[in-house]
């Protein structure tokens, strides 16, 4: 960062004004307007002042080029970062924020800093780091003034990564927030409606769109988008009525959308699709043509045009349209498939096979019929019959020749306007550039990087005036008809050319290329207004070799399609915007010249760009000094555009509505994010993990609206690992250079409010009184930084110790099962398999067999997961590639129906085994949908019956009574089980759940809810294979999930064992046989696969010890940070433990007592806030077995004081912070109290350390256990 060495003096008044500027103003300042010129000048002056301070300090403390920053206040860096952020100088802002992070040990206390850092990461598409920073802001300060801005960005990022439930939650919280926001409520509601659509909730989505459209005061462009979505929803969703009525409504709403916004090319395209479905060919083609005229010449449009040509028996025109599609998107599955069908219909199977193979490159899944075609062609391509067809005169040029042919005029006329792929308008960039008016954001406007003007680069967003002289090279000589025929002949006989003929071919190709390039330049200059064309001035026709478009395939009838050469663009009065094109995986521009295709089919669409091209010098310096290619690709990769039904134009609507003016100095100095994305995205790395998304019904349409592959690569730079410091350059002390430093260890500050667990309850309340008037929310872990995943144990294990033997116990007698030694051994191990338990205790596990379950309750509901059957130690996609993501679809059935499936699967397996024994091999399977991967293996589709609730004591009395034979520490209900003291049912945790399995049924990797222990018994008759990792390694696996773009808490993942081995993670692996009980210790990561046909029963238990309670508390706070609901209410549970159990373990006692103390403190803070707001607290009390309460919006536990409001004729509970966001003055809220303070203080004071445990481990009589466990909380 080069600095101005001139001294800057600021007055006291200016310093006071400057102190009011921080990251919270981002998106709300209009620094580009003339009214805000003074503020902009003040910010720039402040930046220079801070930079001078840093430079002067560098001169004084420079030692061997390293700057220790001993005399620089860390707040200088923080405020400098804020000012740079407000001016949208993101790289410099990142450097300043990172320096503050390193210098300030308790940086996490500064919410505006974390918010600003999150905004910078969000700008660079660093979703994981941005999410982490935003989550910390909400965790530390739930009432943060820009919480709605954070929720919107979190919603956008979750939506971009297909985490739709979390996205919906964040958008709804933003919608309920009454604070000032850069997004309108209408835009947020549109996002919510779209999320319902992509989740497959079509009827709810339709109602949401209709409700949205019935609102008044909606901006026309936003209304047009909603109409477009609703129209396409009718076109694609069968549940919304019969086809004729649906298509009529689809056309109606799409036309209404065009009435509101006639310039939206995607709407024209969708209307063309509807007309094509109705058989209105001419209307469809007119719509497609309008789509191209509106700068929406996307791969989907050209593919659909190709289909129309093919239907009208115009194969050459169809060929050119498909070639246009795959040039725009080289992974467009539908275009490649349709092109293969075209070649196959023209008896050119070799070219058809090449296209089909290209269609499989898109890893969104292989169509079974396509796989069959590929297999057939590969087997019979060389047969005599196929060879005979190959020797016939060809109707179409080969695929290689087709790519060497010149480009149609429609494509070349748009090439000059091709820019970076517009971000999905319902995606992040709709608010990414939310610095309100500093820059004008339109599809064709990309701000210049610093220094571009000096190098003679004209800013792309500005049009050249018509009067400006234009320097064009002289036009190249055009090919004669004889040369065009020669070119065509040489291309057809390319394989047999001698060197001289090959040179002639290359020369002709080069000449065609020059002609195309010149034509594009002329058309681009005309488009920019350099020399307007009159009505009679038309661009030269496309360069077409003779015979390329057979005249016999042209007709003038209405039902006939015009050929490509007859489609011309209306240049009169129309300035096309940026063409919506799917970018390549590298994010670069698309190679549309013919010379880029003739060498190899595999090179179609490939691009190469410099790693640091277009980056500011500061970032280039940092890159060259410290980052390897992988790091750079990870940090600055720009995610691809989603092929979703929310159109690209909404993005420009949002940004244009917020950015209405832009000064010349601003455009030259600021870093415009859209250009930044273009230059940064050029460094995308295909080797990095990607996630594939097609998040709408539109994206699953026939002509591959799902063809675009979404790549979300996250940066490797973490503020906890990489820091920036200032170096003193001995040659030029006026420069600041970015360097790397090791962060200091963080030491938690002392807790405020001088309170301790030795104080009485009323003393705690008195010490905290008056501090919560402005609203404070605290943590159960104390006043320290937000929780974070742990580092792996040090030193790392040796490689030979990464496959440890699984702790196992074999029981022979009932005495062994009830021994204290067994209990203590289980408590000390991550996982234990107890063998022989059923025999030792004489358990009748047959009560849980499928037959018994059907006899007991045949119609009991079962959740079904549809999965692909694979080997237990691997997880592969359809192409044989190993991956972590483990997807499955959800359904519902009954025990009786699943029992039939389970039995038929077993019988089918016996039949196949018998046939194999007789030497008969079958390729198909009765219950499978197989697809051939590159290894030629089929994957059977299986159904896994999971989460069968057995909590009803009336329905399952016999089964539940049988489980009372188990040892106390493993029982569902036990006084020594913390979960028995919750006081209400938590399905699957303090109740039994059943799992019904066939071979291959998988329970993906996870930790149990709130890190509680779990019990799992295999009923049989088959085995299960288990994998387990100790709790201390969950941070490593969490980071590996992030690297694979999977959410650790909510995602479905199956670890790759080789990856765990490389990270030195030990893995227990063992077989669970029928009758075996598996004890899963607190926090142990595990994943399970059925080897045979079997049933399992499982539940959770909570040992009364310090390790279990601490891990449960840590996960409770981690869930709060991640906006994930903790189904175990730890505050509620802690008070119940204090009521019911005497604790003799000092550490556990301190943990529980501290939790109670912090709960009392929070109650006092909340009462202070209620008194400050002038609200009345009404007594409500608690009923017997009443469940703990959670906030309706953020889903955090709400204890004692409930903020209740009526919504949709229901009374719902909110936490204090969410209630404040809904209404700053709490209008409509009623505060209910469930416990008297005197009662809580009495419980708190009575809870003392016991000298002898009230419940010695494993020795409590059964009668006493049942008596105590039946106790419920009373008020």
From TrEMBL:
<dbReference type="GO" id="GO:0071558">
    <property type="term" value="F:histone H3K27me2/H3K27me3 demethylase activity"/>
</dbReference>
<feature type="repeat" description="TPR">
    <location>
        <begin position="111"/>
        <end position="144"/>
    </location>
</feature>
<feature type="region of interest" description="Disordered">
    <location>
        <begin position="910"/>
        <end position="944"/>
    </location>
</feature>
<feature type="domain" description="JmjC">
    <location>
        <begin position="955"/>
        <end position="1118"/>
    </location>
</feature>
<dbReference type="GO" id="GO:0010468">
    <property type="term" value="P:regulation of gene expression"/>
</dbReference>
<dbReference type="InterPro" id="IPR048560">
    <property type="entry name" value="KDM6A_B-like_GATAL"/>
</dbReference>
<dbReference type="Pfam" id="PF02373">
    <property type="entry name" value="JmjC"/>
</dbReference>
<keyword id="KW-0560">Oxidoreductase</keyword>
<feature type="compositionally biased region" description="Pro residues">
    <location>
        <begin position="787"/>
        <end position="796"/>
    </location>
</feature>
<keyword id="KW-0156">Chromatin regulator</keyword>
<dbReference type="GO" id="GO:0031490">
    <property type="term" value="F:chromatin DNA binding"/>
</dbReference>
<dbReference type="InterPro" id="IPR051630">
    <property type="entry name" value="Corepressor-Demethylase"/>
</dbReference>
<feature type="compositionally biased region" description="Polar residues">
    <location>
        <begin position="680"/>
        <end position="710"/>
    </location>
</feature>
<dbReference type="InterPro" id="IPR003347">
    <property type="entry name" value="JmjC_dom"/>
</dbReference>
<keyword id="KW-0862">Zinc</keyword>
<protein>
    <recommendedName>
        <fullName>[histone H3]-trimethyl-L-lysine(27) demethylase</fullName>
        <ecNumber>1.14.11.68</ecNumber>
    </recommendedName>
</protein>
<feature type="compositionally biased region" description="Basic and acidic residues">
    <location>
        <begin position="596"/>
        <end position="605"/>
    </location>
</feature>
<feature type="compositionally biased region" description="Polar residues">
    <location>
        <begin position="432"/>
        <end position="443"/>
    </location>
</feature>
<dbReference type="Pfam" id="PF13181">
    <property type="entry name" value="TPR_8"/>
</dbReference>
<dbReference type="Pfam" id="PF21322">
    <property type="entry name" value="KDM6_C-hel"/>
</dbReference>
<keyword id="KW-0408">Iron</keyword>
<feature type="region of interest" description="Disordered">
    <location>
        <begin position="657"/>
        <end position="723"/>
    </location>
</feature>
<feature type="compositionally biased region" description="Basic and acidic residues">
    <location>
        <begin position="910"/>
        <end position="925"/>
    </location>
</feature>
<dbReference type="InterPro" id="IPR019734">
    <property type="entry name" value="TPR_rpt"/>
</dbReference>
<feature type="region of interest" description="Disordered">
    <location>
        <begin position="412"/>
        <end position="482"/>
    </location>
</feature>
<dbReference type="InterPro" id="IPR011990">
    <property type="entry name" value="TPR-like_helical_dom_sf"/>
</dbReference>
<keyword id="KW-0802">TPR repeat</keyword>
<keyword id="KW-0597">Phosphoprotein</keyword>
<feature type="compositionally biased region" description="Polar residues">
    <location>
        <begin position="657"/>
        <end position="673"/>
    </location>
</feature>
<comment type="similarity">
    <text>Belongs to the UTX family.</text>
</comment>
<keyword id="KW-0479">Metal-binding</keyword>
<feature type="compositionally biased region" description="Basic and acidic residues">
    <location>
        <begin position="711"/>
        <end position="723"/>
    </location>
</feature>
<feature type="region of interest" description="Disordered">
    <location>
        <begin position="582"/>
        <end position="616"/>
    </location>
</feature>
<keyword id="KW-0539">Nucleus</keyword>
<dbReference type="InterPro" id="IPR046941">
    <property type="entry name" value="KDM6_GATAL_sf"/>
</dbReference>
<keyword id="KW-0223">Dioxygenase</keyword>
<dbReference type="Pfam" id="PF21326">
    <property type="entry name" value="KDM6_GATAL"/>
</dbReference>
<dbReference type="GO" id="GO:0044666">
    <property type="term" value="C:MLL3/4 complex"/>
</dbReference>
<feature type="repeat" description="TPR">
    <location>
        <begin position="299"/>
        <end position="332"/>
    </location>
</feature>
<feature type="region of interest" description="Disordered">
    <location>
        <begin position="777"/>
        <end position="803"/>
    </location>
</feature>
<dbReference type="InterPro" id="IPR048562">
    <property type="entry name" value="KDM6A_B-like_C-hel"/>
</dbReference>
<dbReference type="GO" id="GO:0000978">
    <property type="term" value="F:RNA polymerase II cis-regulatory region sequence-specific DNA binding"/>
</dbReference>
């Amino acid at each position: 960062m080069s600095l101005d060495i001139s001294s800057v003096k600021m007055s006291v008044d200016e310093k006071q004004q400057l102190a009011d500027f921080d990251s919270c103003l981002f998106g709300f300042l209009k620094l580009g307007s003339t009214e805000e010129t003074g503020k902009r000048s003040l910010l720039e002056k402040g930046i220079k002042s801070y930079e001078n301070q840093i430079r002067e300090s560098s001169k004084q403390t420079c030692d061997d080029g390293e700057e220790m920053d001993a005399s620089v206040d860390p707040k200088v860096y923080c405020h400098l970062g804020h000012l740079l952020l407000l001016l949208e100088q993101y790289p410099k802002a990142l450097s300043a924020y990172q320096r503050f992070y390193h210098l300030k040990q308790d940086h996490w206390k500064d919410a505006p800093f974390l918010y600003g850092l999150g905004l910078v990461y969000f700008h660079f598409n660093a979703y994981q780091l941005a999410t982490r920073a935003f989550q910390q802001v909400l965790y530390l300060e739930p009432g943060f003034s820009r919480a709605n801005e954070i929720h919107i960005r979190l919603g956008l990022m979750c939506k971009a990564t297909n985490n739709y439930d979390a996205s919906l939650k964040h958008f709804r919280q933003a919608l309920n927030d009454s604070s000032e926001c850069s997004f309108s409520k209408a835009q947020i509601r549109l996002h919510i409606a779209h999320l319902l659509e992509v989740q497959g909730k079509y009827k709810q989505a339709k109602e949401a769109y209709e409700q949205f459209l019935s609102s008044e005061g909606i901006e026309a462009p936003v209304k047009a988008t909603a109409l477009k979505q609703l129209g396409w929803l009718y076109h694609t969703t069968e549940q919304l009525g019969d086809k004729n009525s649906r298509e009529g409504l689809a056309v109606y709403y799409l036309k209404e959308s065009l009435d509101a916004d006639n310039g939206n090319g995607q709407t024209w395209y969708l209307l063309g699709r509807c007309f094509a479905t109705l058989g209105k060919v001419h209307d469809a083609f007119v719509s497609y043509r309008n789509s191209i005229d509106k700068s929406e010449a996307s791969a989907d449009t050209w593919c659909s045009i190709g289909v129309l040509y093919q239907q009208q028996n115009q194969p050459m025109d169809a060929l050119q349209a498909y070639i246009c599609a795959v040039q725009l998107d080289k992974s467009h599955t539908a275009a490649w498939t349709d092109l293969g069908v075209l070649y196959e219909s023209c008896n050119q199977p070799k070219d058809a096979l090449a296209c089909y193979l290209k269609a499989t490159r898109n890893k969104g899944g292989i169509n079974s019929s396509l796989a069959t075609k590929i297999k057939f062609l590969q087997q019979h391509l060389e047969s005599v019959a196929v060879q005979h067809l190959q020797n016939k005169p060809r109707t179409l040029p080969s695929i290689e020749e087709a790519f060497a042919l010149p480009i149609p005029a429609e494509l070349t006329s748009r090439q000059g306007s091709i820019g970076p792929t517009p971000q999905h308008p319902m995606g992040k960039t709709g608010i990414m550039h939310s610095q309100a008016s500093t820059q004008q954001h339109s599809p064709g406007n990309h701000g210049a990087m610093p220094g571009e003007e000096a190098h003679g680069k004209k800013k792309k967003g500005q049009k050249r005036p018509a009067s400006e002289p234009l320097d064009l090279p002289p036009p190249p000589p055009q090919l004669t008809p004889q040369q065009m025929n020669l070119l065509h002949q040489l291309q057809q006989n390319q394989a047999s050319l001698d060197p001289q003929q090959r040179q002639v071919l290359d020369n002709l190709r080069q000449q065609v290329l020059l002609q195309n390039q010149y034509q594009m330049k002329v058309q681009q200059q005309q488009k920019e207004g350099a020399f307007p064309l009159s009505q009679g001035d038309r661009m030269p026709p496309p360069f077409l070799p003779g015979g390329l478009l057979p005249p016999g395939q042209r007709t003038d009838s209405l039902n006939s399609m015009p050929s490509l050469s007859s489609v011309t663009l209306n240049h009169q009065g129309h300035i096309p915007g940026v063409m919506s094109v799917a970018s390549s995986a590298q994010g670069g521009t698309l190679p549309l010249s013919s010379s880029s295709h003739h060498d190899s089919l595999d090179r179609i669409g490939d691009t190469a760009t410099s790693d640091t091209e277009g980056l500011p010098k500061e970032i280039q310096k940092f890159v060259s000094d410290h980052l390897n290619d992988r790091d750079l690709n990870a940090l600055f990769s720009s995610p691809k555009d989603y092929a979703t039904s929310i159109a690209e134009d909404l993005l420009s609507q949002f940004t244009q509505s917020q950015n209405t003016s832009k000064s010349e100095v601003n455009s030259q100095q600021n870093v415009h994010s859209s250009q930044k994305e273009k230059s940064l995205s050029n460094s995308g790395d295909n080797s990095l993990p990607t996630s594939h998304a097609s998040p709408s019904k539109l994206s699953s349409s026939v002509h591959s609206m799902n063809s675009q592959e979404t790549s979300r690569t996250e940066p490797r730079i973490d503020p906890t690992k990489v820091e920036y410091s200032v170096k003193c350059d001995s040659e030029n002390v006026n420069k600041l250079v970015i360097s790397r430093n090791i962060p200091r260890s963080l030491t938690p500050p002392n807790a405020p409010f001088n309170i301790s667990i030795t104080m009485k309850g009323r003393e705690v309340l008195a010490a905290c009184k008056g501090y919560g008037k402005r609203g404070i929310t605290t943590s159960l872990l104390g006043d320290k930084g937000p929780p974070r995943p742990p580092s792996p144990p040090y030193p790392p294990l040796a490689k030979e110790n990464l496959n440890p033997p699984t702790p196992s116990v074999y029981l022979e007698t009932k005495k062994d099962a009830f021994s204290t030694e067994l209990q203590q051994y289980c408590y000390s191990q991550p996982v234990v398999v107890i063998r022989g338990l059923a025999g030792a205790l004489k358990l009748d596990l047959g009560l849980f067999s499928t037959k018994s379950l059907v006899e007991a309750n045949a119609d009991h509901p079962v959740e079904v997961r549809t999965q692909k059957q694979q080997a237990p130690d691997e997880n592969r996609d359809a192409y044989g590639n190993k991956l972590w993501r483990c997807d499955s679809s959800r359904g519902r059935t009954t025990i009786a129906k699943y029992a039939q499936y389970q039995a038929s699967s077993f019988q089918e397996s016996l039949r196949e085994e018998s046939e194999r024994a007789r030497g008969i091999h079958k390729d198909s399977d009765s219950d499978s949908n197989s697809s051939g991967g590159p290894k030629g293996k089929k994957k059977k589709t299986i159904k896994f019956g999971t989460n069968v609730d057995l909590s009803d004591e009336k329905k399952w009395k016999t089964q539940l009574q049988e489980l009372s034979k188990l040892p106390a520490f493993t029982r569902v209900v036990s006084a020594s089980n913390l979960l028995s003291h919750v006081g209400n049912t938590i399905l699957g945790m303090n109740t039994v759940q059943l799992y019904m399995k066939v071979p291959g049924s998988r329970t993906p990797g996870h930790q149990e809810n709130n890190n509680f222990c779990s019990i799992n018994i295999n009923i049989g008759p088959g085995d299960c294979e288990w994998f387990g990792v100790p709790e201390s390694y969950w941070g490593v696996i969490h980071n590996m999930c992030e690297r694979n773009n999977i959410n650790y808490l909510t995602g479905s993942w199956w670890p790759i064992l080789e990856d765990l081995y490389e990270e030195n993670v030990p893995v227990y692996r063992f077989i669970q046989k029928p009758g075996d009980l598996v004890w899963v210790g607190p926090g142990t990561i595990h994943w399970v696969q059925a080897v045979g046909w079997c049933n399992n029963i499982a539940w959770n238990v909570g040992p009364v010890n310090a390790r279990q309670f601490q891990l449960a508390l840590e996960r409770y706070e981690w869930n709060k940070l991640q906006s994930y609901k903790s189904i175990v209410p730890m505050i509620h549970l802690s008070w119940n433990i204090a009521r019911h159990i005497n604790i003799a373990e000092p550490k556990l006692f301190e943990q529980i007592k501290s939790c109670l103390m912090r709960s009392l403190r929070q109650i006092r803070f909340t009462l202070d806030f209620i008194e400050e707001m002038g609200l009345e607290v009404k007594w409500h009390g608690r009923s017997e077995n009443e469940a703990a309460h959670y906030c309706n919006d953020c889903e955090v536990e709400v204890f004692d004081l409930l903020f209740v409001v009526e919504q949709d004729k229901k009374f719902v509970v909110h936490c204090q912070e969410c209630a404040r966001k809904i209404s700053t003055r709490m209008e409509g809220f009623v505060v209910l109290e469930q416990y008297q303070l005197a009662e809580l203080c009495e419980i708190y004071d009575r809870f003392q350390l016991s000298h002898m445990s009230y419940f010695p481990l494993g020795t409590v009589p059964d009668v006493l256990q049942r008596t105590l466990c039946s106790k419920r909380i009373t008020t």
